[in-house]
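hey so u asked for the seq, here:
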Amino acid sequence: MLESLASIGATHVEPAFIVGYTEPFDESAFTPAQAQQWKRWLADSGIICHAFSSHIDLGRDDAVEVFRGRMDFARALGAEVINTNAAARRLKKIFTANIEVLARHAESIGLKIGLENPGDGSDNLLNTASDGPALLAEIGHPMVGLNYDAGNTISHRPGVSPVADALAAMPLCLHTHIKDVRRDASGYFFTPLGQGSIDCARILQAVAETALNLSIEVPLRLHRLPSAQPSRSPYRVPLADIEAVLKPALAFVQQHLNPLTTAH
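ran it, structure tokens below
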């Protein structure tokens, strides 16, 4: 995977470990030995890890133990931000206690926590950009911000404009995801950048005016049902097909960013 990314001109990668969205794994994936292996792979390919995704509900009873281990793993890879979900609204009390502990740990290891808006239609502490100011004010820690994804908004809250919400969220972001989505009667399908209905060009033009880094996300193996629940194909996408989508995606991002800005 890393060799493939390097071959199409990518310089950075955001590894993702998300139950139900990626290959099956357990906490043994985040041992120090595994971190050393990843560091070797990254060094050999010349790829840098700036951001890392490992979404869980931070309102879980075991969230501090689980997420702290993943934070340490991400930092060992060189990541400066780890992205995750906030929590189901009904778990706010536990989330508040957990994020206080995790924010202190983030400060101690120099890793920011990016809370990402979900795409599954559930009731979350961060459904749209309008939830961000109060949530972050309550957390009150500089190591915690948003990782906004307009490609989630279209399925999570279909009545909200993804581009308008992305622009509203941007001042609160410490990282962002760029992905495009096409919606039809069968559900939500992830498309090459610029071929869906998210207006990724407008979002990128706004990112260009900030110091934000971003990650391109094109989940070719996934789509969302009309209910917004994810559905993952049992078949792997051929590497050549992935490269055929990612290479123009890199060009699309560069085209719409300030020429002096490098996409991560």
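The domain at 2-256 is CATH 3.20.20.150 (TIM Barrel). The chain has a mean pLDDT of 96.
lmk if thats what u needed
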